[in-house]
């Protein structure tokens, strides 16, 4: 089974959690895309659900495939949000934002009654930090904000604190019009503490540490699926 097969298998499994009439949050990324495609098959076969999206690109895909999408305010609290992750540890803490959608992903996840992460086994790590941590920042004085972020990351005892603006000289813009700084932490000794500290920096809109949001993890392995709950 390739890693993409494992992602698809996890996306198929999560459909067992979906009930008619549910309000759903649709995640972003290649794994979430498998879920949106599988969900659309059920919707075309008559499953009635309402959904909100965590990014413009997922919204466009969902609409194209016939899934009704509304804003989070119109939907209210999603019963379930299904999303991917860049890293997940054994406490179901996540690094997200590799696809640049972390702000809306976090707003939707935080509003949801149940967040389920689907991923292939490579995303499951002993300690968070090998994947560069995305931090969404305002476009005003990005280098000033990034210097502060690097100081905070170093102060939190991370092994690395290299920071780069995503897109470099032509910075990537998020759906909300912000920039993303990617921080090479290598190893995050205390993700909860780092999350709190990053949230306190002026100019940081949101960071990619998702703590206490994911309740269920469905991991695809080469020999089957593993479900972890918190
Ligand atoms: C997007 C994300 C994605 O969920 C994360 O990057 C995982 O992507 P993929 O499913 O393609 O591996 O956080 O902002």
Please provide a written account of the structure.
32% of the residues lie in helices and 24% in strands. With 230 residues, it is α/β, with parallel strands linked by helices. The chain folds into two domains: 3-121 and 212-222, Rossmann fold; 133-206, Alpha-Beta Plaits (2-Layer Sandwich). Strand 12 and strand 13 (224-229) form a beta hairpin. The longest helix has 15 residues, at 30-44. The protein is globular. The mean pLDDT is 97. The site of ribulose-5-phosphate (5RP) has 18 residues, from helix 2 and helix 5.
Q: Order of strands across the biggest sheet? A: 2-1-3-6-12-13
Number of domains: 2
Shape: globular
Biggest β-sheet description = 6 strands, mixed
Look up the CATH topology of the largest domain. Answer: Rossmann fold
Ions and ligands = ribulose-5-phosphate
Which class of secondary structure composition applies to the elements? alpha/beta
Summary keywords:
six-stranded mixed beta sheet; alpha/beta; Alpha-Beta Plaits; four-stranded antiparallel beta sheet; 7 helices; binds ribulose-5-phosphate; globular; 2 domains; Rossmann fold; 230 residues
Please outline what is shown here.
By secondary structure, the protein is of the alpha/beta class.
Task: Provide the fold topology.
Blueprint (H helix, E strand, L loop, with lengths): L2 H12 L8 E4 L3 H15 L5 E4 L2 H9 L7 H4 L4 E4 L3 E2 L5 E2 L6 H10 L3 E6 L12 E5 L4 H14 L6 E4 L13 E6 L6 H9 L4 E4 L1 E2 L5 E6 L2 E6 L1
Parallel strand pairs: 1-2, 1-3, 3-6, 6-12
Antiparallel strand pairs: 4-5, 5-11, 7-9, 7-10, 8-9, 12-13
Helix pairs in contact: 1-2
The chain binds ribulose-5-phosphate.
């Amino acid at each position: 089974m390739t890693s993409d097969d494992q992602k698809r298998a996890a996306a198929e499994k999560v459909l067992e959690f979906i009930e008619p009439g549910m309000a759903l949050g649709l995640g972003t990324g290649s794994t979430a895309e498998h879920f949106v495609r599988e969900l659309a098959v059920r919707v075309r076969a008559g499953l009635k659900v309402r959904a909100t999206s965590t990014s413009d690109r997922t919204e466009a895909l969902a609409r194209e495939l016939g899934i009704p999408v509304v804003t989070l305010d119109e939907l209210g609290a999603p019963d379930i949000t299904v999303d991917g992750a860049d890293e997940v540890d054994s406490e179901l803490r996540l690094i997200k934002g590799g696809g640049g959608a972390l702000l809306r992903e976090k707003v939707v996840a935080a509003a949801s009654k149940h967040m389920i992460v689907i991923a292939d086994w490579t995303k499951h790590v002993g300690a968070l930090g090998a994947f560069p941590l995305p931090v969404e920042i305002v476009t005003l004085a990005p280098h000033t904000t990034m210097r502060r972020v690097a100081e905070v990351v170093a102060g939190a005892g991370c092994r690395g604190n290299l920071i780069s603006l995503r897109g470099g000289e032509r910075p990537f813009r998020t759906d909300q019009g912000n920039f993303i700084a990617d921080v090479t932490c290598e190893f995050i000794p205390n993700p909860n503490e780092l999350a709190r500290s990053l949230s306190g920096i002026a100019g940081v809109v949101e960071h990619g540490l998702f703590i206490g949001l994911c309740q269920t993890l469905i991991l695809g392995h080469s020999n089957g699926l593993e479900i972890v709950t918190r």
